[in-house]
Amino acid sequence: MSVSRAIIVSDSSLLGSSLEMALSKNFDLILKLPDLRQVKVDSAWADTVVLVDAPYPDHTIGLLKEMIGEVDLSRTIVLLRGSQAAIDFRDVVGFIGAVLPNNSTVEEVGLVARVVRQGLFLAPTEMLSLNVLVSDETPEDNAPAELTEREQHVLALICEGAGNKVIARKLDISDSTVRVHVRAILRKLGLQNRTQAALYAVGRLQKPMRPASFMN
């Protein structure tokens, strides 16, 4: 039986303790670390949620970008501070599970942690109102003809908000195989992240893509 784990990354002992209390109801093991660089990927990573307090956005974004492609960040949650905005994290939105505003309560953070653990990701609504998610260089074709059938299935599930863990379970493949497909999709479509891929598919296809095996 797998053990659910939450890793709290924060240099604030007060915040760390508050989050620990909120998460203890739904996670078997909780670790607290002062720096994201101390987080180690191990055999329990697939059932681990990482909550990152981000007092220095540029530093945090830089570390997360280094991890993209090497580590599955779909269960990583970034907690904003002060006047920080989700738009500051646009380069990693779609790869990480969620970005939460600084006025989120510990109970709300705990709820999002449960959602992200199930493989879903949350895109900040403020980013949908800005023209930052879809590049002007996005292919103009009405359908991603270059994608394989399996890649189209993966893209359809990304559109539904599914994270790598959920996609792997539904398609009966490994998490690592899902990551390979996601990277291939982004490369072929000339996009930067999962959110861009989802918006591309929803906005440019004449009808939503859904794997045939999931149709009623």
Number of helices: 8
User: How would you characterize the largest beta sheet?
Assistant: 5 strands, parallel
Percent helix, as a range, is 25-40%
The whole-number mean of residue pLDDT values reads 80
> Could you give the count of β-strands?
5
| N to C succession of SSEs | EHEEHEEHHHHHH
Rg over CA atoms, rounded to whole Å, is 17 Å
Give the CA-based shape: globular
Structure description:
The structure is a single chain. This protein has 216 residues and is α/β, with parallel strands linked by helices. It contains eight helices and five strands; from the N terminus they run βαββαββαααααα. Strands 2-1-3-4-5 form a five-stranded parallel sheet, with helices on one face. The radius of gyration is 17 Å and the shape is globular.
